[in-house]
């Protein structure tokens, strides 16, 4: 009898097939002497739409809500029906005796496979492959340690509970809002509180009243000294007269050193990356969105096989992985990492609780290099950047701590307290893993120096150049994608695997937009927050869900108990929306008329483009006005936007510079940039593809079928 292996994606399936020596190629599968390997294309099966339960749900009417299927139905996704049939045919083969689930080792990966097995009517025994990288070695070792599929039934129950709960709240909440306010509105237990976070921060900024403050510095003993309030310890004062008076007195006095503290300190490297921390760093350093970073990581994991599984929330590795550190070091000791990794290979590899701890490893360990030999020249520029972040962080934790001598000086002048200080490096330690000096988030009064004058308690010196500086208190910063990820993580909003998609969904449904790197709530988003039930805006809701889903996966809570609670909650939010007295008005109406239905169109700002969208949900017409490009302005070097169509396409920069596409191509050729017609054609195809992608949310297809009347201006 043969064993059928079901992978989540074709690329992973082919890797497994190669290791298992499955060389005979049939459509959608690879076969060998003992194994058959096939694959999904992500989800092949999903929960049925409402109309799959009752024909009346084809029309969206608030009287028919809430929709409460007694038993949820599964349906094969139309676009991938062909691949499902291939997988099903392999499952039903008489010479197949065992099934191995080899989808991604996590909650959603479990759901992908289990739903396929369920709808195909599988009765054969199931085993589970659970690996954190797709190198040949990891696959071979994983197949030696296959687990009984029954050990993951609770994980499957948690995954199915999540899907059914999101269906109940999302479908009912979205239909209730859409019908009640005759506008394309959606809500969800993660996206709505995330939007509320951004709106709350905007309100903080709007209501913030800045205050002027003053600081005072002077030079003495060859160092810069900062005045410090003797009571509060602050180096700021809101009383200009007081600071000016101290400055005048200090100019006529001496600085007496009253205390000298010399301390040898150790600084430990930052921990290994989990996905959220990596997305945060990539956004801060390179401006990558959370989704872009995840996609790049996925390629490094699946295609290049040089990094481990990306969707992890752990920053630790287990003892079993720690035993492979030498091989991983040898694999990444290439190019710019050769010298740094080589030093570590010449001595025993240190392991401690700071990054090796089995108790702190969840489904997957931290993101680290694999044992696969690295070919940097096969990577794109973006892949190199993300790989560099992960490798240097990995190398850093294996180095000893950085050691430095910290010197803090306290002085007295004009009857006031003054502070100065510095740090002098003794051992670079883990900072050797980085080419540039590490930015310490520490006391900003300390300077890094190479030598220090001999300073002792009681020593006096003249004071020079007392300087009063003026500043203003600042409001909290607007969220960017990096800081939003941090806020979502702290609020338990979503998981490492879903946060990037939630952020993208909020952009694509025009509930929020970007102004430079700052994220702002749109008029539509603000109105939505005023219309949804208060409870749905609270982060505590989704945090409670995740807590209960974890309990289901660990066998401490029954799925039916959780779903029963969600049904009751769904009834509450539908009633609250139906009884709502608010109104929704489009504030972005333009005078452009839709060429299909003649109604006024809406001006919307997508994540990477400006568009005109018909206000009538059932019409669905939209057109692009301008789209962000990677072309740089020759004057200010900022990225330009492209306006117009056909021969009239023009690049426009915020500095006022304009250039037709044809002129841009000619200029780039003269500059030796090598922009060919093929490059331009590929670029334009990408732009067209993006323009045709869904611009709304997961319910876009359902909205397109609506036949509700839409009043102009609403």
TrEMBL record:
Residues flagged as site, Interaction with DNA: 60, 167, 175, 311
Q: Recorded E.C. number(s)?
A: 5.6.2.1
Query: What reaction does this catalyse?
Result: ATP-independent breakage of single-stranded DNA, followed by passage and rejoining
Cite the binding residues for Mg(2+): 8, 104
Q: Which cofactor does it need?
A: Mg(2+)
Note the InterPro entries from the entry.
Topo_IA (IPR000380), Topo_IA_2 (IPR003601), Topo_IA_AS (IPR023406), Topo_IA_cen (IPR013497), Topo_IA_cen_sub1 (IPR013824), Topo_IA_cen_sub2 (IPR013825), Topo_IA_cen_sub3 (IPR013826), Topo_IA_core_domain (IPR023405)
- What positions constitute the catalytic site? 309 (o-(5'-phospho-dna)-tyrosine intermediate)
Domain Topo IA-type catalytic span(s) in chain numbering: 152-574
Task: For this UniProt record, give its keywords in alphabetical order, as a comma-separated list.
Answer: DNA-binding, Isomerase, Magnesium, Metal-binding, Topoisomerase
**Record's family?**
Belongs to the type IA topoisomerase family.
What is the documented function of this protein?
Answer: Releases the supercoiling and torsional tension of DNA, which is introduced during the DNA replication and transcription, by transiently cleaving and rejoining one strand of the DNA duplex. Introduces a single-strand break via transesterification at a target site in duplex DNA. The scissile phosphodiester is attacked by the catalytic tyrosine of the enzyme, resulting in the formation of a DNA-(5'-phosphotyrosyl)-enzyme intermediate and the expulsion of a 3'-OH DNA strand. The free DNA strand then undergoes passage around the unbroken strand, thus removing DNA supercoils.
Q: What is this protein called?
A: DNA topoisomerase 3
Q: Which species is listed as the source?
A: Coprococcus intestinihominis
């Amino acid at each position: 009898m043969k064993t059928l292996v079901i992978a989540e994606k074709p690329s992973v399936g082919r890797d497994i097939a190669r290791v298992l020596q499955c060389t005979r190629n049939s459509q959608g599968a690879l076969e060998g002497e003992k194994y058959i390997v096939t694959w999904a294309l992500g989800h092949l099966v999903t929960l049925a739409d409402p109309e799959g339960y009752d024909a009346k749900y084809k029309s969206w009417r608030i009287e028919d809500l809430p929709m409460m299927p007694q038993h949820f139905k599964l349906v094969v996704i139309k676009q991938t029906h062909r691949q499902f049939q291939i997988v099903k045919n392999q499952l039903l083969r008489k010479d197949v005796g065992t099934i191995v689930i080899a989808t991604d080792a996590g909650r959603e990966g479990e759901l992908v496979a289990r739903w396929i097995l369920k709808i195909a009517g599988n009765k054969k025994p199931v085993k589970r492959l659970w690996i954190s990288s797709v190198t040949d070695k990891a696959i071979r070792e994983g197949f030696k340690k296959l687990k009984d599929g029954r050990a993951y039934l609770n994980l499957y129950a948690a995954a199915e509970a999540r899907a059914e709960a999101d269906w109940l709240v999302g479908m009912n909440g979205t239909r209730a809002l859409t019908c009640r306010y005759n506008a394309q509105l959606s809500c969800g237990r993660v996206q709505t509180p995330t939007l509320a976070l951004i709106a709350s921060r905007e309100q903080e900024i709007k209501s913030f009243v800045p205050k002027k403050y003053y600081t005072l510095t002077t030079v003495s003993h060859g160092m810069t000294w900062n005045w410090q309030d003797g009571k509060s310890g602050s180096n700021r004062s809101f009383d200009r007269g007081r600071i000016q008076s101290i400055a005048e007195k200090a100019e006529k006095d001496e600085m007496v050193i009253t205390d000298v503290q010399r301390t040898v300190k150790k600084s430990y490297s930052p921990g290994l990356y989990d996905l959220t921390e990596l997305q945060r760093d990539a956004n801060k350093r390179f401006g990558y969105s959370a989704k872009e970073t995840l996609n790049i990581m996925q390629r490094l994991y699946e295609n290049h096989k040089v990094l481990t599984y990306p969707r992890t929330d752990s920053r630790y590795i287990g003892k079993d992985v720690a035993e492979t550190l030498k091989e991983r070091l040898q694999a990444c000791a290439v190019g710019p990492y050769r010298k740094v990794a080589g030093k570590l290979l010449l001595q025993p590899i240190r392991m401690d609780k700071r990054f090796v701890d089995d108790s702190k490893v969840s489904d997957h360990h931290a993101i680290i290099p694999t044992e696969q030999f690295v070919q940097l020249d096969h990577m794109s520029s973006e892949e190199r950047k993300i790989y560099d972040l992960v490798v240097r962080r990995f190398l850093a934790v294996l180095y000893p701590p950085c050691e430095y001598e910290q010197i803090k000086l306290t002085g007295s002048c004009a009857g006031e307290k003054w502070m100065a200080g510095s740090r002098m490096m003794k051992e670079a330690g883990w900072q050797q893993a980085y080419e540039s000096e590490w930015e310490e988030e520490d006391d900003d009064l300390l300077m890094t120096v190479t030598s220090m004058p001999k300073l002792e308690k009681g020593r006096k010196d003249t004071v020079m150049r007392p300087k009063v500086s003026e500043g203003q208190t600042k409001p909290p910063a607007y969220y960017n994608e990096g800081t939003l990820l941090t806020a979502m993580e702290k609020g338990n909003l979503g998981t490492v695997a879903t946060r990037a998609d939630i952020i993208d969904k909020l952009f694509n449904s025009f509930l929020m937009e970007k102004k430079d790197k700052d994220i702002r709530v749109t008029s539509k988003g603000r109105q939505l927050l005023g219309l949804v039930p208060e409870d749905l805006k609270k982060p505590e809701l989704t945090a409670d869900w995740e807590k209960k889903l974890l309990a289901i996966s660990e066998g401490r809570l029954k799925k039916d108990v959780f779903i029963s609670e969600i049904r009751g909650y769904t009834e509450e939010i539908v009633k609250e929306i139906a009884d709502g007295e608010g109104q929704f008005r489009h504030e972005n109406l333009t005078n452009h008329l839709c060429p299909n239905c003649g109604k006024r169109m809406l001006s919307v700002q997508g994540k990477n483009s400006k568009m005109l969208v018909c206000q009538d949900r059932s019409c669905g017409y939209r057109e692009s006005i301008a789209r962000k490009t990677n072309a740089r302005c020759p004057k200010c070097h900022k990225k330009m936007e492209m306006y117009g169509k056909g021969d009239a396409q023009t690049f426009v920069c915020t500095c006022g510079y304009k250039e037709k596409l044809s002129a841009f191509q000619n200029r780039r050729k003269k500059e030796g940039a090598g922009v060919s017609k093929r490059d331009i054609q590929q670029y334009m195809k990408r732009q067209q593809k993006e323009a045709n992608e869904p611009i709304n949310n997961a319910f876009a297809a359902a909205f397109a079928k609506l036949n509700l009347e839409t009043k102009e201006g609403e």
